Structures are given as C-alpha cells and as structure tokens.
Amino acid sequence: MTYFPYKDFSYETLLNQPFIIVGPCVLESYELGLEVAEEVKRVSEKYQIPAVFKSSYDKANRSSIKSFRGPGLAKGLDWLAQIREKTELPIVTDIHEPHEADEVGKVADILQIPAFLCRQTSLLWAAGKTDKIVNVKKGQFLAPWEMASVADKIRESGNSKILLTERGNSFGYNNLVVDMRSFSIMSKFSFPVVFDATHSVQLPGAKGSSSGGDRSFVPALSRAAVAAGANGVFLECHPNPDAALCDGPNSLNLKDLDKLIGQLKNIWSLLI
C-alpha cells in the first residue's frame, strides 16, 4: 500500500522518499474533490509514490471580492474529512488566521501557510502548536535563504515537522520566475523542499480582477525542479481547468496527471 493511508502517514513518510501533493485549488463541490482525489490515489498506487490530497475550503486572497472563495470552514472541513475517510489519502489545506489552526488540525494531516502570509508570526506559531506538519509557501517577495527565519518561527513553537515550498518570485508586473537554485539553498535547512509547479506558472492579477497563467509550462518546470533537487511536487489539478472557479489558467488538466507523474518518478529514480 504505497499511497500511505492517513492512518499510517507521518513526517518520516516525506523525509525518506519523493512525494506529490495534488488537488483542485478550491473545493467547488464534494463530488469534484472526490473525483480528483480518487485519480490522485490511483496514480499514487500506479507509480509507488506517496501522495497527499490538497484543496482549500477558503481562498482568502482572491484578486477580487467577487471571486469564488470556497464553501467555508465548516462545510469545507466536512468535505475534506469525508474525502480523507473514503480515499485514505492524507490531507493538506490552507489556513489564513491563527484561530483556524486547531479546528483544521483535527482534519488535515498538513497545515499549509499561503505565500502571502509566510512571515505572519502568529499564524506560523499557531500552525506549529497543533503538532501537525506545516507546509510554508515561500513568498513571491522572499529570497530562498530568508526561509530559514520562517522555519525558525515554527520551530520555536516546538514543532520541527516543516516543508518549504518554492512557488516562484515576482518578475516585474504580473509575472513570476523560478530560480532553480532555491532547491539547493532551502535543502540546507534540513527540511523537505517542494516545488509548487502550478502557482509558479501563474500570472498574478494579469486579468485585472483575476490571475492568469499558462499551464503549458507546468510539465517542463516540474521536470526541471525534480532534477534540481525538489523532494516533492505540488500540483493543482482540475478535470476541466477552463471552467475552474479558481486558478484555472495555471491548473493542470487531471487527464495529464498520470503522464507527468510517470516522468517525474523516472527522474527521481535516477537521482536516488
């Protein structure tokens, strides 16, 4: 059973081998979340690689106040708990405020800190105090070496179960670029380093009231990141990205997940 059901899942699972974090950007419905999770599990088993299901109950940093944010905390956690129980996949989801940490920690195996909030001391502390794994997205405004101080804030809470995620840096207006040196630099902090392939091809605010993106670059950047030393790859997937309610332009089509994970597994096997 190589997908590591949540009952057996631990930080050591991620320390000892490559892994993937995959799911739709936001929970549009329970049915869509389950559809994606079941495909993630199938691919995980096929390629013998641990997988974590990702989706958000609330996207609090949308470009427009009119943008879809998700089902909210209570309904979203209920859907995530059901998906977790049905598929046995571990779960990761974002928190945006310190008071959410304890409630989310009852369901999620990993608490995720969004990039824009990666230096929020109270949020990092609250996530750390749950004793769950904490995945921190590196802010688009930070150098990779600055993530050492971010990790220290979590460690001061008594929790060293940390993941650091690269998701590109601001490159002028409405554009991001990935510095492949980040993986070597952040790996020196002794935590697994993840590549957020789909947010790295985002074009923030490029559509005025929403972000754009170009998903065609996701496979190439993912392969490059794994070759450069990424321990895990984060991918937002949707069965119909053009109709997605959040981050559709940069989301991978679910039908393309199998091929990409097969390629990444082959690259990882050459490096181990």
Automatic annotation (TrEMBL):
Its main location: cytoplasm. GO terms for biological process: keto-3-deoxy-D-manno-octulosonic acid biosynthetic process. It is found in: Cytoplasm. Keywords: Cytoplasm, Lipopolysaccharide biosynthesis, Transferase. GO terms for cellular component: cytoplasm. Its EC number is 2.5.1.55. InterPro entries: Aldolase_TIM, DAHP1/KDSA, KDO8P_synthase. SUPFAM superfamilies: Aldolase. GO terms for molecular function: 3-deoxy-8-phosphooctulonate synthase activity. Pathway: Carbohydrate biosynthesis; 3-deoxy-D-manno-octulosonate biosynthesis; 3-deoxy-D-manno-octulosonate from D-ribulose 5-phosphate: step 2/3; Bacterial outer membrane biogenesis; lipopolysaccharide biosynthesis. It holds the Pfam family DAHP_synth_1. It comes from the Bacteria. Residues 17-262 form the DAHP synthetase I/KDSA domain. It catalyses: D-arabinose 5-phosphate + phosphoenolpyruvate + H2O = 3-deoxy-alpha-D-manno-2-octulosonate-8-phosphate + phosphate. Belongs to the KdsA family. HAMAP family: KDO8P_synth. This is 2-dehydro-3-deoxyphosphooctonate aldolase. It comes from Desulfovibrio litoralis DSM 11393.
